[in-house]
Amino acid sequence: MSKCVGFGSHYRHVKRKIVGRNRQRVRHLGSRRAPSKEHCGKKCKHDSLKPSHSTQNSYSAWMLVTTNWINDYLSNNVSTEDQAQLLTAAGFPLEGRDDLPDGDVRQDFEMTSNRGDCTCHIGLAREIAARTENELVLPQNNVNETGPAIEESASVKNTEHDLCPLYTARVILGVHVQDSPEWLATKIENRGDIPRNAVVDATNFVLFEHGQPTHVFDLDKLTGKTIEVRRAREGETFLPLGEDATPIKLTTDDLVIADAKKPVALAGVKGGAETAVTSETKNILIESATFNPVIVREMSRRHNLSSDSSFRFERGVNPRQVESCADRLAGLLLELGGGTLCKGILKDGKPLPEPIVVRMRTDYCRERLGNEITDEMIAKHLNSIGFDAAEDNGIVTATVPHFRGDIHREIDLVEEVARVHGYENIDVVESIEVRVPDSGGESAGRHAVLDALAGMDFIECVTHSLISLKAAEQFLFEGQTPLTIDDDRASAEPALRPSLLPSLLTVRKHNEDNGVKELRLAELGSVFCLEGETHAERTELALLMDAKESDSIGEIRGVVNRVCSILTANNDVSIDSTNSTPWLEPGGDVLFNGTVVGYVGRLATSVQKSWNLPNTMHVAQLYLGDLLASFPPDTQSNPLPKQPAIERDISLVIDETIEWSAVHDAIVGLQLDYLEDVTFITTFRGKNIDNGKKSLTLKLRFRDSKRTLTHEEVNAPASEASAMLTAKFSAEIRS
Question: What is the set of domains in the chain, with CATH numbers?
Answer without folding.
Answer: 145-349 (3.50.40.10), 357-425 (3.30.56.10), 441-629 (3.30.930.10), 646-734 (3.30.70.380)
